[in-house]
Write a structure and sequence with these properties.
519 residues; alpha+beta; D-Maltodextrin-Binding Protein, domain 2; Dipeptide-binding Protein, domain 3; 2 domains; 4-stranded mixed β-sheet; 16 helices; disordered N terminus; signal
Length: 519
């Protein structure tokens, strides 16, 4: 225990990791999390556009709503809300005794100020779209002087009017961009953030660590330990070595190390895993050449042995996909089966479509591991079905730009959910409104699919909404709007003294408020 304490002291530089209790035993009071590999871009919620930033914002700030580790939306600064019968008007009833880290009292005006700041063009916000459902929000973000559907009739009430019904709107308010800020937001707010969240920023040593102290006045109850240290460790082997030395408490397991952890008794005892809201798929540009024919797109799906791909590429960390809705979300259809791996069926479909000699296509991928390896494996599978692929590898940003511009035949990529709802897969990846830059790099367009998704977005009843999601997902799967490969499982190693940790299904779902540290 003394060696672990000493190591943590050396790492934190600012606070010991262990102390002596009254009975002489060692008590841990610092949790060290090594899940982030790079520095947050900003701690200003308006500019928090990456996962490390989003995690840190969740520690420091609250929104009107928040996500649990399991992905449920629950009240945060709003203790409750009501929705008008037409689905257009949300009335949020606020908690009346919440204070910011500087001691100032949270009031309804802070919601209005925070949302208006996010929308103002001069803020140069990185993520504005969570507020776009609000009436007038798009125009405001475009610099137009129009009324905004946002009212604060008193200090503890916020009324938001939407441009059109959107049943998932409370989930959008749990996004980092919708966090609530105090009255005074200076130019150095990213370095000196002030929120209402369960943690306060103590120190940010860029590209090294962020140190947070617990907010003892947090309205939801102060965290059970004193200090949260978010380490930035780019090299996975370094993080593994520190975990095994006891100086890191939470470790992300890279795909290539999965088997070595699962096959070692001592290591396996520390593993926890859960499905993530992440889809690996092939974007199929349905406007280009032979890919316009659904039979050709179905041939692609039949030519790929997805179970073997999952086992070999990701060490089985996930489930084979038969649609774009993950198994943990309402709208998933457990009865739907993936396309069978059948090279002869693929060749037959090509012949029926008028391509008895096969076709030639380009498959784009990122240059970052494991995408080149996946692309090469797909090239071999599809080649056996007489679908000849030329591989094109670019850096990730160039690959995304080409796909969004419609310049790719096929592109292999992944999609992380921004919020836990089937809509966040169906709408951005396949709806006509999002062709290209919106995320639909398959340029898939189907009027029936669009109608089903649009109805689901408006439907307040959860069961009916899930039925609409399943119908839309089934239609797009049969039409091969894209080729879904598999849904990913997150895997972490967790020290035995960490109690109550749940693997979050969404990046900002774990705020460490229900986690404790044992001896």
């Amino acid at each position: 225990m003394r060696s672990i304490c000493a190591a943590i002291i050396a790492i934190t530089l600012v606070a010991p990791g262990c102390r002596r209790a009254d009975d002489g035993s060692s008590v841990r009071h610092t949790l060290v999390d090594s899940r982030d590999w790079y520095d947050p871009r900003s701690l200003d919620p308006a500019k928090a556009t990456d996962v490390p930033s989003g995690r840190a914002v969740a520690y420091l700030f609250d929104g009107l709503t928040r996500f649990t580790p399991s992905g449920e939306v629950e009240p945060a600064l709003a203790r409750s809300w009501d929705v008008s019968p037409d689905g257009l008007r949300y009335t949020f009833h606020l908690r009346d005794s919440v204070t910011f880290h500087d001691g100032s009292l949270f009031r309804a005006r802070h919601v209005s100020q925070s949302f208006q700041r996010l929308l103002r063009p001069e803020t140069q916000s990185g993520t504005v779209w969570p507020l776009f459902p609000i009436a007038g929000a798009r125009a405001t973000a475009a610099g137009k002087d129009v009324p905004l559907g946002l009212e604060t009739p008193d200090d503890t009430t916020v009324v938001i009017t939407l441009a059109e019904p959107l049943a998932i709107f409370p989930k959008l308010l749990a996004m980092p961009a919708a966090a609530i800020l105090p009255d005074h937001v200076g130019v150095d707010f990213s370095e000196k953030p002030v929120g209402t969240g369960p943690w306060k920023l103590v120190q940010w040593k860029h590209d090294d660590f962020l140190k947070f102290a617990r907010n003892t006045n947090y309205y939801g109850g102060a965290p059970a330990f004193d200090t949260l240290l978010a380490r930035i460790i780019p090299e996975p082997s370094t993080a593994v070595a520190e975990f095994e030395a006891g100086t890191v408490d939470i470790l992300y397991i890279p795909e290539e190390q999965t088997r070595s952890w699962e096959n070692t008794d001592e290591r396996r005892a520390n593993l926890v895993s859960a499905p993530a809201l992440r889809l690996w798929y092939i974007g199929v540009n349905s406007t280009r050449g032979p890919l316009k024919d659904v039979r050709v797109r179905q041939a692609l799906a039949h030519a790929i042995d997805a179970p073997t791909l999952l086992a070999q590429l990701l060490a089985g960390r996930g489930t084979v996909a038969a649609g774009v809705v993950p198994p943990t979300l309402d709208g998933f259809d457990a009865a739907r089966k993936p396309f069978a791996y059948d090279t002869l069926a693929a060749r037959r479909l090509l012949t029926e479509a008028g391509y008895p000699n096969g076709i030639d296509l380009e498959l784009w991928s990122s240059q970052t591991s494991p995408w080149p390896r996946l692309a090469q494996t797909l090239q071999a599978y599809l080649g056996a079905a007489n679908i000849r692929l030329k591989l094109v590898q670019r850096d990730a940003s160039a690959m995304r730009a080409a796909a969004r511009a419609g310049q790719t035949d096929l592109v292999v990529k992944d999609w992380y959910a921004d919020y836990p709802d089937a809509e966040n897969f169906l709408y951005p990846l396949l709806h006509t409104a999002n062709k290209g830059a919106g995320g639909n790099v398959s340029f898939f367009s189907n009027a029936t699919f669009d109608r089903l998704v649009d109805e689901a977005r408006r439907e307040a009843d959860g069961q009916r909404r899930a039925t609409l999601y399943r119908s839309a997902d089934s239609l797009a799967y049969q039409q091969v709007g894209l080729v879904p490969l598999f849904f990913y499982n997150e895997m972490y190693a967790v020290q035995p003294w960490v109690k109550g940790f749940e693997v979050p299904v969404i990046f900002n779902g774990q705020r460490w408020t229900k986690v404790s540290l044992g001896q």
